[in-house]
C-alpha cells in the first residue's frame, strides 16, 4: 500500500451515501473497510490490512487490562463495515454522521494508513502546529 494522501470533499445524498474518492478507491485493493469513531472530532476508515493490526492491538489491550473490555466494547460498538457499491459510493449510517457532524458533505482526508472523514468546518478550524513540531518535521523530511 502506497498510503492515503490528499483531501477530497464529496456530497452526501439523501440515503447517506457518499462517493468514495477514486484515488482512495485505487489504493484499497480488497475486502470491506471498517468505519468507526474513536475520536470525537471525526470518523476513521480503515482498510483491511490496517484493521487487522488494530484488532490485534485491541485484543492485547483487553487482555492486559482488567477494564480493557469496556474500552474495546465502546470502540467496536461504533464500528461498521462498508464497501464501495458499483457506483463507488459508501453508506455512512445516520448515527455516525450525526456524531461526526456530517450534514450534506464529507471531507475525506488521507492519513497514510487510514482515511479520516471530517466535517470540513471542523477540519479547517484545527489548531496550528504546536511548538516543537517544526523540529519533528525536520527529522521526518530532512
Task: Give a nutshell description of this structure.
This protein is of the alpha+beta class and 142 residues long. Helix content is 38%, strand content 25%.
Low-confidence stretches: none
Total helical elements: 6
CATH homologous superfamily classification: Transcriptional regulator MraZ domain
Task: Write down the CATH class.
Answer: Alpha Beta
As laid out across the biggest beta sheet, the strand order is 1-7-8-4-3-5
* Radius of gyration, whole Å: 16 Å
Find the CATH topology: Chemotaxis protein chec
Mean pLDDT score: 89
Q: β content, as a range?
A: 25-35%
The CATH architecture comes to 3-Layer(aba) Sandwich
Largest sheet, strands/sense/barrel: 6 strands, antiparallel
| Total E-strand runs | 8
Structural class: alpha+beta
One letter per element, helices H and strands E, the order comes to EEHEEHHEEHEEHH
Provide the domain count: 1
Helix content: 25-40%
Our measurement of the CA-to-CA distance between the termini, rounded to an integer number of angstroms, reads 23 Å
Any idea what the shape is? globular
Task: Kindly describe this structure.
The protein is of the alpha+beta class and 142 residues long. The protein has one domain: Chemotaxis protein chec (3-Layer(aba) Sandwich). The chain is built from six helices and eight strands. The strands form two sheets. Strands 1-7-8-4-3-5 form a six-stranded antiparallel sheet. The radius of gyration is 16 Å and the shape is globular. The two termini are 23 Å apart.
Amino acid at each position: 500500500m502506497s498510503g492515503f494522501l490528499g483531501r477530497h470533499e464529496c456530497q452526501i445524498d439523501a440515503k447517506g451515501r457518499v462517493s468514495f474518492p477514486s484515488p482512495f478507491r485505487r489504493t484499497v485493493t480488497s475486502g470491506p473497510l471498517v468505519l468507526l469513531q474513536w475520536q470525537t472530532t471525526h470518523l476513521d476508515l480503515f482498510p483491511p490490512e490496517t484493521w487487522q493490526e488494530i484488532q490485534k492491538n485491541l485484543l492485547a489491550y483487553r487482555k492486559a487490562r482488567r477494564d480493557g473490555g469496556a474500552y474495546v466494547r465502546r470502540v467496536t460498538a461504533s464500528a461498521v463495515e462498508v464497501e464501495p457499491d458499483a457506483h463507488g459510493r459508501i453508506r455512512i449510517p445516520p448515527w455516525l454522521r450525526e456524531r461526526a457532524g456530517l450534514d450534506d458533505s464529507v471531507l475525506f482526508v488521507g492519513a497514510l494508513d487510514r482515511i479520516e472523514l471530517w466535517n470540513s468546518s471542523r477540519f479547517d478550524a484545527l489548531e496550528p502546529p504546536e511548538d516543537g513540531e517544526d523540529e519533528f518535521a525536520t527529522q521526518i523530511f530532512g
